[in-house]
Amino acid sequence: MSIRKMIALHPEVQSHVNQPLGDAAHHLMYCARMCLSCADACAAEKMDMHQCIRSCLDCADVCEAAGKLSVRRTGTNEAVLKETLELCARVCDACAAECEKHDHEHCKLCAQMCRECAEDCRNAAASITPEG
Predict the structure, then answer these.
(1) Helical packing angle, 105-127 and 78-99, nearest 10°
(2) Residue 8 lies in a domain
């Protein structure tokens, strides 16, 4: 299964898929889940992980919202989509930086996913052309 294929099947896309946006939509779904899983694992750690939990939960929420906007192809709202992707990249970078402070394997994996997602969000935002 592929979200890219699903987007390509949309009647208004007509096989003209914005590949960077499809890549971002794919990573956004995974990043949201990875951040939720990392936050849960952080909650079970014996040390104070409050900031990491907060960063992961915030990142998961922003990725979820950006992912939803990324797969909507009916109508246009390109300015909002572009701004959301740019915000998401910054939030992913912040989450990765927080996770990188910890030596837990779940934090390392989350940070890696956040860095990949941030890069895809930046590429997708750069690929979006203004409406009109």
Answers:
(1) 160
(2) no
| Cβ neighbourhood burial of 27 (10 Å; 0-12, 13-18, 19+) | buried
- Per-residue tokens: 26: 């794919």
b/e map of 87-115 (b: 16 or more CB within 10 Å)?
A: ebbebbbbbbebbeebebebbeebbebbb
Both tokens of 37, joined, read: 């899983």
pLDDT value at position 132?
43
Whether the CB-CB separation of 43 and 8 falls below 8 Å is answered with no
First-residue to last-residue Cα distance in the chain:
33
- Spatial neighbors of 82 by CB under 8 A, at least 6 apart, are 125, 128
CB atoms < 10 A from the CB of 8, how many?
A: 15
Kindly report the CATH number assigned to the domain that includes residue 101.
Answer: 1.20.1270.360
* Number of domains within the chain: 1
Digit-coded pLDDT (tens) for 57-102:
999 999 999 999 988 877 778 899 999 999 999 999 999 999 999 9
